[in-house]
Design goal:
Distance between the termini: 68 Å
CATH topology: Tetracycline Repressor, domain 2
Structural class: mainly alpha
Number of strands: 0
Strand content: under 5%
Order of helices and strands: HHHHHHHHH
Shape: elongated
Radius of gyration: 20 Å
Largest sheet: none
Amino acid sequence: MTSASRPRRRLGEDERRRQIMAAALQEVADRGYEGASLTRVAARAGVAKGLVWHYFAGKDDLMGATARAAMEALRADVVAGIDLDRPVPDVIRAALRAAAALVRTRRDELVALNRIVHNLRRAGGEDVAADFYEETHRAQEELFRRGQAEGSLRRLDPRVMAVTYQGAVDTMLAYLEAHPDVDPGAYAAALAEVLLGGMQA
């Protein structure tokens, strides 16, 4: 049997959803949130537009799912190269280096995620940015509490530390995106010292 006559493998539901979300992510990265259309998402995914509606209730549902998947993938990417058993200040330095590297290794995901998170609204019109960060903030709070328990971090409110830390990460990523000539590793190292200057015991 030749490859031309071989039947195409039918994708499972989860694979098809991932395929559509990957197309949505690229569409937003290329055209912006407002410019993204479900028709083009379907074309990028190589599926009929009706199939997008089969798996997602509409544009907001698709964009929300895409943002959550992108955030989970980026978070896993950052954590993958870190020895979490090291003292917490070392973990923070390594996490900032890994996050800064995403500007070069996962640029489209970062751009699309930022555009979705800051444009997606609930039915009542309120934005959903805080929802997307909640899991990240909780993980950071847990890390900072461990640092306090080991004596390496000051006894500050872990939620305040997490929100401030994540805000600094987001600002770093936006700055590095706008200034591609800046060395991400050097920026991350400097930011780590600024943050740890306020957090270390």
